[in-house]
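Quarterly update, task 2.4: copper (II) ion-bound model.
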Amino acid sequence: MNRLQQTMALFAATFALGAAGAAAAAGTLAVEQGWIRAAPPGVPMLAGYADLRNGGDAPLRISAVESAAFGSVSLHETTVVDGVSRMRELPGLAIDAGATVRLAPGGKHLMLMEPRQPVDARAPVRLSFVLEDGRRIDAEFVVTGQAPAAGDGHDHAGHDHHAH
Ligand SMILES: [Cu+2]
């Protein structure tokens, strides 16, 4: 084996290990870098963002997003038509095998309506992503004024050093 083959064999072995626990040919949703834009108290609607990664070997489809912290959660997309920014509700979100869909300001996002409690940086918000096949993937979203820096993973997401 040359070095490239060794690297690829190692990668294949690592991938096989990672996938061993999953069902055959299933999409696997990972919700990464989840954050909700902080807003003044009493605002009836907040926006949430994340990277939605399908690490599985088949497409998946998110059919709903739910949270006990809000009266309703929906998937939205912002588009600019003739210079006017509009939001529309998406009926669901399909993610190809191996693909990542980024929810980000100015594009696709989560619309979080009717907060049932104050949403602030002191406590992350738990959201539940419901897949078309019935599986649910829970994720914690931090509440912050700006997007977490790239590479700032889950290990740090619970800490907000400005939240005193
Ligand atoms: Cu929206």
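Highlight for this quarter: The helical segments are 3-19, 154-157.
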